[in-house]
Amino acid sequence: MSRAQVRTHLDESVDVGVKEYYFTGGEPFLNPEMVPILIDALEYGPATVLTNGTVLKERWLEQLAAAEEASCYSLEFRISIDGFCAEQNDPIRGEGTFDRAMEGVALLNEFGFLPIVTAARSWRLEEEDRVVDAFLDRLRGAGCRRPRLKILPMLRLGAEETRSSPYAASDRVTEAMLEGYDTSQFICEQSRIVSDRGVHVCPILLEMPDSLLGAKLGDADKSFALKHGACLTCYQHGAICSNPSAGYRVPSFSKSTE
Amino acid sequence: MSIAATRVALLGGIYSNYLALQVALRQIREAGVDAIYCLGDLGAFGPYPDRVFPLLQQYDVQSIQGNYDHSVGHALDDCRCGYTDPRDNHYAQKSYDYTLENTSSAGRTLLRGLPEKIQFEMGKHRVLLCHGSPTKVNEFLWESTTSTHYLNVMLDDLEVDCLCATHTGIKWSRHLNGDKRFVNVGVLGRPENDGQTCVWYAILSEHDEKPLEIQFVPVAYDFQRLAREMASEGLPEEFQETIMTGWWTTCLESLPAKERKRGRF
């Protein structure tokens, strides 16, 4: 999308009352207008960009640091990787991409940003503490005094369909499962994603034909049937795309102790 | 509810900090206000949660229900603070388990009965008090991650002129369209990650139908005693350090970039 197109949607977002803005791709920084787009967004509200961290340039970060300083809003960088070491990440993202992403993280720290490294959980849950602690040590070694992480559940879509397995037909949210459930945990209850094709229900289902809800943000406030396998992952984990500062609890199905 | 208030005191999360609450309530009584409200989360973080209740009663403080109050009142198994990071949840659980165990049955009954919101009028201004946000008790309304138009639309939809919340632990306010106002009143429970040991509350005033005015008031209290009592109750050293230094040491992952950068950790 061009800067002008994004600006049009930002203007539309004011009447809708959008709280914050996330930018994702592909790799957003392959868009030659990405830096001015982020600077524009910071005039409207908080902005988060999801990048692989491998193409960042010092002059861009200089401009973005100045823009964030001048704004009352946060600019968050989310660095996406597919594992906390080259052995896990590179087979999926390409040879050398893990080290380059870590260089990006270090560069962002040099410019005063506190990037949130985001990885899909590709390890067993019982290994989590060991894996996370080792990675935090590595980040500190790379110059991150205050490392920030976001761990995402594995979505069995795209390449992951063949790497593990696709969602089975039975992997669906049922009406019975929604009884007593806090539906605001679903991404589609709290956000929309805009592409050059229009406004879609959520970033995960972007390529699904039924994800397109309208041309403008104001047209896309309609309910969506939770009929995809990925909806089950959203149901189980909640708020999987938001930053931790959004403050939506991970559903734990807490029960009274009485 | 309509009150002839021209000046009200707004207390954010108390988090069991009865020592700061005591000082704040004395200050407020001396300054003179028409009403005192607490925006929820009476217990959490600090020691002896039951010591808060008699003070609120003595000073006729009207409270609303925070996420902590709801959880403790109903004896749920976590605080529903809205943290999504395991490191935040680790410490939140320690705080919650202690608070639940040390809140009396009478205290829990009181917490269960608190209203979710309070609305009143000050002159021509309609004021709404909530804990996190009007739609979600554990929504974080941080200064750097809440767009102005989000608040404008929210206040228009609710048909109010001033919205007050707490929950994040750091005070801020913003002028909105048409002389409307959003206020995060801060908290009495712990310092706000700026290296100062004081805590804060807010006074909302109305003068001659002009836009509402907000004044944030610092509270200096015996924080060393609070830290000692936290230690004697076995609460984590990290919590005591926050009370002693004014820097947050836990629950840091929920902070947005700007608020995180202002802190030490």
By secondary-structure content and strand pairing, the structural class of chain B works out as alpha/beta
Number of helices of chain A: 10
Total DSSP E strands of chain B? 10
CATH superfamily of the largest domain in chain A: Aldolase class I
Helical residues, percent of chain B: 25-40%
What is the CATH superfamily label of chain B? Metallo-dependent phosphatases
What is the beta-strand fraction of chain A?
Answer: 5-15%
Mean pLDDT of chain B: 96
Please name the defining characteristics of this protein.
heterodimer, A: about 260 residues, TIM Barrel, 5-stranded parallel sheet, 10 helices, globular, disordered C terminus, B: about 260 residues, alpha/beta, Purple Acid Phosphatase, chain A, domain 2, 5-stranded mixed sheet
How does this model look, in words?
The complex is a heterodimer of chains A (258) and B (265). Chain A is of the alpha/beta class and 258 residues long. Chain A folds into 2 domains: 1-152, TIM Barrel (Alpha-Beta Barrel), CATH 3.20.20.70; 167-258, no CATH class. Chain A is built from 10 helices and 8 strands. Chain A has a 5-stranded parallel sheet with strand order 1-2-3-4-5, with helices on one face. Chain A has a 3-stranded antiparallel sheet with strand order 6-7-8, with no helix packed on it. In chain A, helix 1 (3-16) runs parallel beside helix 2 and helix 2 packs parallel to helix 3. Chain A is globular and about 50 Å long. Chain A starts with a helix and ends in a 21-residue tail after the last helix. Residues 249-258 of chain A have low confidence and may be disordered. Chain B is α/β, with parallel strands linked by helices. Chain B has one domain (7-257): Purple Acid Phosphatase, chain A, domain 2 (4-Layer Sandwich). Chain B is built from 9 helices and 10 strands. In chain B, the strands form 2 sheets. In chain B, strands 3-2-1-9-10 form a 5-stranded mixed sheet. A 5-stranded mixed sheet of chain B has the order 4-5-6-8-7, with helices on one face. In chain B, a hairpin with a 7-residue loop joins strand 9 (199-205) and strand 10 (213-219). In chain B, helix 3 crosses helix 5 and helix 7 (223-232) packs antiparallel against helix 8. Chain B is globular. Chain B starts with 6 loop residues before the first strand and ends with a helix. The mean pLDDT of chain B is 96. Chains A and B meet through helix 1 and strand 5 of A and helix 6 and helix 9 of B.
